[in-house]
Amino acid sequence: MRLGDLWMDQHNIAASLLAFNTHGGIRSSRGEEPPIICFSHLRWDFVFQRPQHLMTRAALSRRVFFWEEPIWSESLEGGPNLRMLTTDSGVTVVTPMMPNGMDERAVVRAQRWMLDNLLAIYRISDPIFWYYTPQALPFSAHLTYPRVVYDCMDELSAFLGADQLLPTLERELLARASVVFTGGFSLHEAKRQYHRNVHPFPSGVDVAHFRPARHGLPEPLDQQSIPRPRLGFYGVIDERMDQSLLAQLAALRPDWQIVLVGPVVKVDPITLPRAPNIHYLGSKQYNELPAYLSGWDVALMPFACNEATRFISPTKTPEYLAGGKPVVSTPIADVVRSYRDADGVQIADSAQSFVAAVEHALQLAQEPTAWLTQADEMLATASWDGIWARMTALMDRSRPADHAPESRTGAVWA
Q1: Phi and psi of 105, rounded to 5°?
Q2: Is the domain defined by 207-379 classed in CATH 3.40.50.2000?
Q3: Angle at 296 between CA 292 and CA 298, to 5 degrees
Q4: Is domain 3-204+392-397 given the CATH code 3.40.50.2000 in the classification?
Q5: d(Cα 54, Cα 67) in Å, to the nearest integer?
Q6: Distance in angstroms (rounded) separating the CA atoms of residues 10 and 81
Q7: What pLDDT score was predicted for residue 187?
Q8: Torsion region of 129: left, alpha or beta (phi above 0 gives left; psi -120 to 50 gives alpha)
Q9: So what's the pLDDT on residue 15?
Q10: How far apart are the first and last CA of the chain?
């Protein structure tokens, strides 16, 4: 695509933005605080997790634009355009739509123009740029604002298929950031040497959302026929899951039913362990999860211990506990650090020890009063509302980065 084509597309994008604004796409009552432009590698409607929890809370008092990675299309008339949708929570999801075949430089230019037009049409002069991915820098780094937040929820460079430029881009983002949040303590230890203002925020929990699981919610149709006892997991099923552990667990205890709820990503479904007592129920909406959790006896976190899980702090641990289920996990560093003294959380590092831990957890499930009080005391300090309040205070007190960004290198800086 020629540069001239993209320039014409800029005017189409501006017209689309103006039409969206004119038709009331943004709720004007949410403009009291500086707006947030949130750049995310996760799609808004994929899995409801940290970005969604925080941005829905941000949208209570300010405009929030959630900028997703592009969607590619073979039939896109008129070249690149911008799709915008305001959710019920008030967050406006912004999705660049790109025709197949665009080269990397053209994609960067197109998104840069889209971002400039969005800021101009909504008259946003002093936004907060909130990054979940350094890969948004190539089209946003030409804009400089005093408050830049890097919420580092994962070590993305360790994930399967990660862009080799991620470490370089992250160094520049760290240089630009006025404050850095991390998704757990392990990430905090890894990032604090690169920035003067880094704060750990392990995963939170919406207790009110998951607590009804303690009281016998109606059984989802696709779980009704599965015998008990049930050992359950919900979340993304990807390279972070220990497939060998699941296969061994299913073989060692064929009378236990393993229920896996969530999308399969970055791994071939054919390679996943199969057995009569392993049940893949597919992706579910966030509001459906308590009903599935309610029908389990024990909740599982069968993560592989590898580079992709070295820094993770799973949201599942507090959610499972809030739903009243004992948890059995592999020895993920942040789980061990935060829950090693929790009676309701068992840690196991092999198939045999996992079996023993599940047996103990099944006993705990019969005696919830023996451990739930302790769990509730731990959860009391882990609400997403509290996390957002503390993040906001740190963000408001933060100063602009006091060191210059590194030189831009590579084709991404087209």
Answers
A1: -65, -40
A2: yes
A3: 135
A4: yes
A5: 14
A6: 8
A7: 85
A8: beta
A9: 54
A10: 14
Q: Mean pLDDT per 10-residue run, the chain (414 residues)? A: 36 55 47 89 91 97 96 78 94 94 90 96 94 95 93 71 76 94 88 91 94 96 98 94 96 98 93 97 96 98 85 87 97 91 96 97 94 95 95 90 45 47
CA distance 296 to 8: 56
C-alpha span between 57 and 94 (Å, rounded): 18
pTM, two decimal places: 0.86
**How far, in Å, CA of 118 to CA of 377, rounded?**
44
Number of H helices, E strands in the chain: 15, 15
Distance CA 89, CA 111 (A): 25
Domain ranges, ordered by start, for the chain: 3-204+392-397, 207-379
Longest dimension (CA), the chain: 69
Fold match between domain 3-204+392-397 and domain 207-379: yes
203: left (phi over 0), alpha (psi -120 to 50) or beta: beta
Name the one residue in this structure whose structure tokens are 């084509």: 5
Q: Which residues of 200-234 are buried (b: 16+ CB within 10 A; e: fewer)?
A: bbbbbbbbebbbbbbeeeeeeeebeebeeebbbbb
Do residues 317 and 328 lie in contact, with contact meaning Cβ atoms separated by under 8 Å? Answer: no
